[in-house]
């Protein structure tokens, strides 16, 4: 039993389905907490035009029964391409999303708004001891999304000056992780309304109320999903040899590193825990940016059936 959108209205309601069979390398997972990402809105409302509507295996070696584990946005890949062999399976052309996708056996992926799920052990991570499920849930999306580019672009060395553009679910974790890496962090936003939050509660060093701020050889790293084209004047990039680049969530290896980093540094996500019957209201609020900073569904404590 889970909750699902039946059409592009985006309204979620109880939904009964069958899990795919547990294979020799699969993990059967009881869902305790599930984070909500703004990308979920794009999927349930078909904003991107690609939405689909309606026991531990004998060879599993990474986990044992009773382990507290986590699953992010990806639950499968080809295992043979260059990205897969380079431990950056999130860039595999045959990656399988954890929801709104199809497994190799033809079964649909159903996501985490449900009682349980079956996932290949490669795409499951151990939650560090002492980290609560509701805190781990946003880290598997927002935390990983900022940790991966900081590491890839060499920004995990302390003492750098950088900016976080936008202070939402991903941005607030960007501030926390960048500060924990020892950086001077400036929050760049469209208005002054989050100045106090950024400086006093998240620990940012400066706040600026946006491409003109980049210095020579500066990089603007895009991580958010938007369904409208970006517009800019080419001289703004050419003059100053500036770069606009992107980063897409992160790898399984980076997921494990990020969780341990957050545990070591004592980093937590600012969350609002809700029950499943509040999910549609939560999506309405998320569209209005009315959350500080991530909703997490208490799946284990919710009544999923009507």
From TrEMBL:
Alphabetical list of InterPro entries matching this protein: ADH-like_C (IPR013149), ADH-like_N (IPR013154), CAD-like (IPR047109), ER (IPR020843), GroES-like_sf (IPR011032), NAD(P)-bd_dom_sf (IPR036291)
Keyword Oxidoreductase: yes
UniProt keyword annotation of Metal-binding present: yes
GO terms (BP aspect): lignin biosynthetic process
Domain Enoyl reductase (ER): 10-297
Keywords annotated in UniProt: Metal-binding, Oxidoreductase, Zinc
Family: Belongs to the zinc-containing alcohol dehydrogenase family.
Official protein name in the record: ALDEHYDE REDUCTASE
């Amino acid at each position: 039993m889970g909750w699902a959108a039946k059409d592009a209205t985006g309204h979620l309601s109880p939904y009964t389905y069958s899990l795919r069979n547990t294979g020799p390398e699969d993990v059967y997972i009881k869902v305790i907490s599930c984070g909500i990402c703004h990308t979920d809105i794009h999927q349930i409302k078909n904003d991107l035009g690609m939405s689909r509507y309606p026991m531990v295996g004998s060879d599993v070696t990474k986990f044992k029964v009773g382990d507290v584990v986590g699953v992010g946005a990806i639950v499968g890949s080809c295992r043979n391409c260059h990205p897969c062999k380079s431990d950056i399976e999130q860039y595999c052309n045959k990656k399988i999303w954890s929801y709104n996708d199809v497994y190799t056996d033809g079964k649909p992926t159903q996501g985490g708004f449900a009682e349980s799920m079956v996932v290949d052990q490669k795409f499951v991570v151990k939650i560090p001891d002492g980290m609560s499920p509701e805190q781990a849930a946003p880290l598997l999306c927002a935390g990983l999304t900022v940790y991966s580019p900081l590491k890839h672009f060499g920004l995990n060395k302390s003492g750098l000056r950088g900016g976080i553009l936008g202070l939402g679910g991903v941005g607030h974790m960007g501030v926390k992780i960048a500060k924990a890496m020892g950086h001077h962090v400036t929050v760049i936003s469209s208005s002054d309304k989050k100045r106090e939050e950024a400086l006093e509660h998240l620990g940012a060093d400066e706040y600026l109320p946006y491409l003109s701020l980049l210095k020579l050889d500066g990089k603007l790293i895009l991580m958010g999903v938007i369904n409208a084209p970006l517009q800019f004047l080419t001289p703004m990039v050419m003059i100053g040899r500036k770069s606009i680049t992107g980063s897409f969530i992160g790898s399984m290896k980076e997921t494990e590193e990020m969780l341990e980093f957050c545990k070591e540094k004592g980093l937590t996500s600012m969350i609002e825990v809700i029950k499943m019957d509040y999910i549609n209201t939560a999506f309405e609020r998320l569209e209005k940016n009315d959350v500080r900073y991530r909703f997490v569904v208490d799946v284990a404590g919710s009544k999923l059936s009507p």
